User: Which sequence fits this backbone?
């Protein structure tokens, strides 16, 4: 009931009654002043009381009637504006309202119509941008696929293919000298074994790149543990894991970090000749810290002599920057390689 009395119609009626009250007080003051000062015969307390009561009674009736009658159009127009705002809030930007009057309410209606047109135009622009972004993403994925294929083909040609060619040549040479110089043939066979092991390691690293990028819904810790368990069965490397569950980490960030770990381990297999790898994932305050280190041969970061390694490092750095993190690498010849990543949560 109180809410109904706060509507525009009852507010309009209250304003009329307030005006009636002020008018009645003024009239009563005038009549009393005339009675006190002049004391005319036609004016007495009874006539003053009757006049005031009749004036109040008729004024209330007229105020209510005029209030309802006059505020009806105003209420309808405000209802139209309310409906228009509701439609706009629900996304129906084609709704419009029109008034024949030329007043403030009509001006508000025109401004709301212009707002609806602008919102409709912005929605079309956003949809067009979304379509363009989808096309760009499709083109980017296609370009990334082509680039990755070219890189794998280049790695196969530069590493495994050449090593297999070397194995073929050494095997043929060993067969030719086997009868006349068995000791030299033995040395070449040992070299063949080393080359074959190296080719096998690099092939495993290349296959690691072809592993699915996503975590298939599992947390980062479990995905890395499964990846390491798979590598332990194929490589003679001792892995030291110290990884915490990070519930605040988003799915996108987990996938990026998983890909960084995958890329780092691949580089370790191909280039580092390491026997031990350390993986640490911890949370300190509102930040996540990921450390990947090995005791391998290392390289000169400043000279950047290894083009294959630098390509992987560039990719890892870009992935960290995409999720708002920082990427740092420390490495020296003969002292291994250490990667430190910090991600804000």
Assistant:
């Amino acid at each position: 009931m109180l809410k109904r009395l706060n509507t525009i119609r009852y507010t309009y009626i209250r304003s009329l009654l307030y005006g009636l009250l002020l008018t009645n007080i003024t009239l009563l003051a005038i009549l009393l002043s005339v009675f006190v000062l002049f004391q005319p015969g036609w004016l007495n307390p009874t006539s003053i009381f009757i006049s005031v009561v009749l004036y109040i009674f008729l004024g209330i009736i007229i105020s209510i009637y005029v209030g309802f009658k006059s505020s009806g159009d105003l209420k309808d127009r405000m209802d139209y504006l309310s409906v228009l705002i509701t439609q706009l809030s629900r996304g129906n930007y084609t709704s419009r309202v029109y008034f024949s009057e030329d007043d403030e309410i009509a001006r508000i209606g025109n401004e709301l119509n212009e707002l609806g047109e602008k919102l409709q135009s912005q929605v079309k622009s956003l949809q067009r941008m979304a379509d363009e972004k989808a096309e760009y993403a499709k083109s980017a994925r296609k370009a990334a696929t082509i680039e990755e294929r070219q890189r794998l083909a280049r790695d196969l040609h530069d590493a495994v293919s050449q090593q297999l060619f070397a194995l073929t040549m050494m095997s043929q040479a060993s067969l030719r000298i086997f009868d006349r110089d068995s000791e030299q043939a033995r040395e070449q066979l040992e070299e063949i074994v080393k080359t074959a092991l190296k080719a096998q390691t690099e092939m495993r690293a290349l296959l690691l790149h072809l592993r699915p990028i996503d975590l298939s819904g599992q947390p980062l810790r479990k995905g890395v543990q499964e990846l390491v368990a798979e590598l332990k069965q194929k490589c003679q490397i001792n892995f030291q894991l110290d990884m915490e569950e990070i519930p605040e980490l988003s799915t996108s960030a987990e996938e990026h970090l998983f890909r960084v770990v995958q890329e780092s381990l691949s580089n370790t297999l191909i280039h580092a000749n390491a026997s031990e790898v350390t993986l640490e994932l911890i949370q300190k305050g509102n930040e996540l810290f990921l450390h990947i280190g090995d005791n391998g041969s290392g390289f000169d970061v400043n000279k950047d002599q290894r083009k294959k390694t630098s390509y992987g490092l560039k990719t890892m750095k870009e992935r960290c920057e995409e999720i708002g993190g920082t990427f740092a690498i420390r490495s020296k010849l003969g002292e291994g390689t250490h990667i430190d990543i910090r991600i804000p949560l």
In short: The mean pLDDT is 78. Helices lie at 2-5, 8-37, 45-89, 104-177, 182-209, 220-232, 251-272, 307-322.
